[in-house]
Each structure stands twice: as C-alpha cells, then as structure tokens.
Design brief:
Largest sheet: 9 strands, antiparallel
Number of helices: 11
Helix content: 25-40%
GO cellular component, one term: cytosol
Radius of gyration: 24 Å
InterPro entries: Bact_exopeptidase_dim_dom, Peptidase_M20, Peptidase_M20_dimer, Peptidase_M20C
EC number: 3.4.13.18
Enzyme class: hydrolase
Number of strands: 23
Protein name: Cytosol non-specific dipeptidase
Length: about 475
C-alpha cells in the first residue's frame, strides 16, 4: 500500500479505508454505516442521532476511569471537486490516493483530508493500546460543508464530555479558540428565453478556467482570482448580449476556479467581442501572475445559433449585479493580527429552468459586520431586480479568555514541541461555536496538521505534520 513506508500505519490505514467510501455532503450513509460497523467489530458502544451524527464511546484506560471524559470531533463529509477532464464519480468511486513520502494527495480530485484526517486520527487513537487516555467520546458530524447540519442538529444528550478537541484545523502549531460566523445569500432572476433573429446575431462561448480556487475561509486572504468575477468583468464591457447558458462555481465555501457563459451578440459587435476579451485577458494575466498564475480566458465562436436566448435587458441586469457583488476580504480583524474579519465569496452562478441564480457566502468574526456585508451583497442584486433570500446563518465562535482547555492545550503543546503555539482565531467556519451553544458547559479547542489547498484538486496533507500531530495527541491524552 502507499502508506507502507510511513510511521503511523494505523492512521494511514484508517484514512485509506475512509477514502474508499463516497461521502459528499448529504451522502454520508456509507461512511456512517462503516463507522458503526468499525465500532461494533471492536466491541465499542456506538450510536447515532436523528440528523445522522455518529457517536463512538471508548472506555478509559485502566486507572483513569474517574477522570472527566474528552470528546474528539470531526465531520464525515467532504467537498467534492475534480479536474475538468476527470471522469471520477463521487457517488461511487473511491478517492485515488497518491503519496510521495512527504505529501498525501488525490489523483484529479479533492483529497477529503478535510475532514477525513480527523476521523482517521480519532480511530487510530481509540484502538491504540499503548495510549493512556480518559474516556473518549468520538463525535463525527454530517454535512458540515453545506450548512453545519450535524452541529445544529446535535443531540446533546448523547455526550457526557464537556471538553472537546475539534480536529478540523489545517495549520500545525496553531490552537484555534474562535472562528467566523456566516450566512448565505441566494439571489435569482426570472429569465424566460425569447425568440431571436438568428440572421442578425452570432454565438460565443467565454470560459475562465485554470484558477487555484480554494477554501473561501482559509484561502480568501490569498487574493486569488474568482472565475465568476472575471466573467462578469468581461461581460460588463460588452455593449450588447443575450445569455444562452451560464455555469460557474461548485460549492458556497469554494472560491470558484472556473466559469463558462454562452451568449448571443449583434453582428455589428462580432469583431468587438474578441478585442474586449483579449484586453481583459491581458489585464488579468498580469494582475494575477503571482497570486493565480494559471488563469486562462478563452473565447469560442460557435457555429450553431439557438432560436431563443434570455433577453438583453435581463442578461445585462444579472451580469451587472455580479459585477458589483463584492468578493474577497472586506475587513481585517482589529483583535487578531493578520486575520480576516469579514469577507464574501461569490460562489455559484447558473442559468437553469428559466432562472438566473447566484449564491454568495459571507463570513465574519463580528455578527453585525457579517450582516452588513450580506446586506451589501443583497443590495447589489436587488438594485437590478433580483429576488434575494438569506439562508443558513450560523454564529461565530467567540474566544473564551478563561478557557481551561485552551490553557492546558497550550501548555502541553509547549512541553511537547519545545516551543509556544500560536493561540488565535480563524476566518473559516468551525463547528465548535455551534456545539458549544448546543451542549451547555462545553469547552473547546481546534487543532490539526498542515493541510494545503483544501476544497481544490491541489489539496494535500503534509505527512510529517500529521504524524507529529498524532504524537502530540497521544501526549495530550496522557497528560490531560
């Protein structure tokens, strides 16, 4: 196997098993049943709640039965993204893992280390006979990536632990004690197709692709390009167009790496379209030469001209709304240096069933700032006649300066690694804030190994970091 030369065999074996099971958000039944079977085979009590979260109860090591229990937590689902030429089917195909001894990645897809590595770590610790620990309660939640469903629907009665270690962090050496809250803004516009005079128009397809994309929380500060915004930038400059198709982005928490739009334009502008595209291409390639060097802007003139298209006024209104929708960091935190306070990700656009749709995801460490940013996004849509609704609001996790678990974790980290950890907050959303609100008295921290480019096909995990984190977790369980 690919992990034969690695040290933490139990960790990587569990990760391989998990990676064989399709587990896109909303399709967690396979991984849920596998976890319940895993526990049963080892004589461990396991349970699930109404929303599908899984609980596995691991008895304390001998002599530690009277100590307070500890919860190790991660989520079962993963973001599923693949390369444009990949035939991978996330409903049935296993993730194909590649390992060069230094990194673990997937072939042509996201790896799912977010958050499969948390499950693998927890299972490896649970079956480690040499690891001394208090009673462990392993909590694996559902649909974290699409609305934090598991955390919101958690049955608190199934947890006795009031200390929780979330393993959904992506940066070794950092202890997270807070995170941003968020809200989704869904905007739509009726777009009934109208007959066109096919002799007076030409048909084009514009594609922006090759972008790095990434996590809309963890990578938003990197200044990468947004494919939807680049398409809107070009369409904003066209004097006349009627949309025939539109498809961009994949998930609300993924910075869109590709977007394609097809449109009709009057023959009088046929020669102007390529010149505008060439001009914008030159601009963006220069602007993103360091932050997003793979950006590609292509234009095709299509032979077939459809009989119908979305009328010009509606097409222009929708594209102008996208052009004015904010994307990227909107404010930096005054309390945590280098941390984004508020951001928006223009995530998904489509033309389907005679409706133009756009989805944005706003995050902020400050609830009022989150709401104000969401209102700004909504205004950019409503001013052009789009209907807006807000969905999936979740609270921020406010740092607790008196947290006993944070202080203990930081102390143990310093003793184990011989250096101080960074104790801070994160712009990405974590389940801790919701779980803390659902389970009265819960004290939480979030830690994890180095993961890179999550929510993209470049996602990978640093092997040495994951194995160091396993060593620290054993030490932490022993000393708590």
């Amino acid at each position: 196997m690919w992990y034969d030369g690695l040290k933490e065999k139990a960790l990587w074996e569990a990760f391989e098993e998990i990676s064989r099971i399709p587990r896109e958000s909303g399709n967690e039944e396979g991984i849920r049943q596998w976890l319940l079977s895993w526990a049963k085979e080892r004589g461990l009590k396991a349970d699930k709640d109404k929303v599908g979260n899984v609980f596995i109860y691991v008895p304390a090591s001998e002599g530690r039965e009277k100590e307070e229990a500890l919860c190790l937590q991660g989520h079962m689902d993963m973001v599923c993204v693949k390369t444009e030429d990949s035939s991978h089917d996330f409903t049935k195909d296993p993730i194909e893992i590649l390992c060069d001894g230094k990194t673990v990645r997937a072939k042509d897809t996201t790896l799912g280390a977010d958050n499969g590595i948390a499950i693998a770590m927890a299972l490896a610790l649970a079956q480690d006979k040499e690891c001394s620990h208090p009673a462990l309660e392993l909590l694996f939640t559902v649909s974290e990536e699409t609305g934090l469903t598991g955390a919101f629907g958690l049955d608190a009665r199934k947890l006795s632990a009031r200390r929780l270690v979330n393993l959904d962090s992506e940066e070794e050496g950092v202890i997270f004690t807070g995170c941003a809250g968020g809200i989704e803004i869904d905007a739509s516009l009726k777009a009934k197709s109208r007959p066109v005079d096919r002799d007076k128009v030409d048909h084009f397809r514009l594609t922006v692709s090759g972008l790095l994309g990434g996590h809309s929380g963890g990578d938003i500060h990197l200044g990468r390009a947004n494919a939807i915004k680049l398409v809107a930038r070009i369409m904003h400059r066209l004097p006349d167009f009627m949309l025939t198709s539109l498809d961009g982005g994949t998930r609300r928490n993924v910075i869109p790496s590709s977007c394609t739009v097809s449109f009709l334009t009057s023959k009088e502008y046929t020669d102007l379209v390529p010149s505008i595209v060439d001009q914008v291409r030159e601009e963006v390639v220069n602007e993103y030469r360091k932050k997003d060097p793979g950006v590609s802007v292509t234009l095709e003139r299509l032979d077939e001209v459809p009989q119908e298209a979305v009328k010009a006024k509606t097409s222009a209104a929708f594209m102008e709304s996208l052009y004015l929708t904010p994307h990227g960091p909107q404010a930096m935190s005054a309390d945590f240096e280098g941390i984004v306070e508020t951001s928006n990700n223009l995530a998904i656009v489509s033309l389907k069933d005679e409706k133009l749709s756009a989805v944005s995801s706003t995050r902020s460490l400050v609830e009022s700032a989150r709401n104000e940013c969401a209102y700004t996004v909504a205004a950019a849509a409503e001013d052009f006649g789009l209907k807006v609704r807000f969905e999936g609001a979740y609270p921020s996790w406010e740092p607790d300066p008196d947290s006993a678990l944070v202080k203990k974790t930081a102390s143990l980290y310093k003793a184990f690694f011989k250096k101080k950890p960074v104790v801070t907050t994160i712009h990405a959303g974590l389940e801790c804030g919701i779980i803390n609100s659902v389970v009265e008295g819960m004290d939480s921290v979030s830690i994890g190994p180095n993961l890179f480019d999550v929510h993209s096909v470049k996602e990978h995990i640093e092997v040495d970091s994951a194995e160091r984190m396993m060593g620290f977790l054993r030490y932490m369980l022993e000393k708590l």
